[in-house]
Amino acid sequence: MKQLHMKPHHAPGLLLTFCGLDGCGKTTMIRRLADDLQKDGYGICLTKQPTDAVRGSGIFRTYMDQPDHERYEYRSLSLLAAGDRVQHVSKVILPELAQGKIVLCDRYFYSCLANLRARGYTEDRWIYEIGGSLIRPDVSFFFDIPVEMAVGRVRARPEERDRYIDMALQYRLAREYREICRVNGGVSVPTDIPLEETYRLVKEKVTERLGKQDEKQA
Phi, psi at residue 60, to the nearest 5°? Predict the structure, then answer.
C-alpha cells in the first residue's frame, strides 16, 4: 500500500477525521468531543463524508443495503464518492478551517481507499492521484474494534436490525483501515474498551494537537 500524499492546509483551524467500521463508536466520540471543545470556547463544525448527495444515491444504497451488486461496477461508486469528497473539502471543510474552526469529520478520504482496496482493487492508482489534491488532517483517528462487536452494535439499532452486512467485507475493511492508519501516520484508538478510556485517549491527542496549534499562532 502506498502512502497518500495530501497537502497541508495552512489554515488557522484544525481538521480532525474519524474512520472505522460501522459500529466502531465514531458518532459517540465525535459528539462528546464536540461538546467538550465547545465548552472550552472553540468554534466547531460537525460534518461527514460522503455527503447526503451520495448517501441517497441508488448506487450507494445498492452497495449498502443489498447483496446483489450486478447492476454496478464498484469503481463507479468509488469515483462518485471520491468526487463528492473533493467537493466537500473545497466547499465545506476549507472555508470552516479558514474561520479558525475545529472541523470534526465523520469519515474521510481514507474510507474511500479502504473500501476500494477491500473489494479487490489494490492496483488502482487513480485513488492516490485524487488523494493528492485533498488536505491532510491535523489528526486522523482510526477506531479499531473486533468485527463481531461492531456488527453487534449495528444490529442493536432498531432501524438497522435487518440491514444487509457483508461479513467477509467487514474483515477486509478492518485490515485495510489498520494498514492505512499505519502507513499514513494515523492514530489508532481501540473502541472495545470502556468508553471513558477510549475518550481519554482521543481527548489527550486532541489536547496535544491544540497545544501545538496555539504555539504556532502565538
Answer: -65, -45
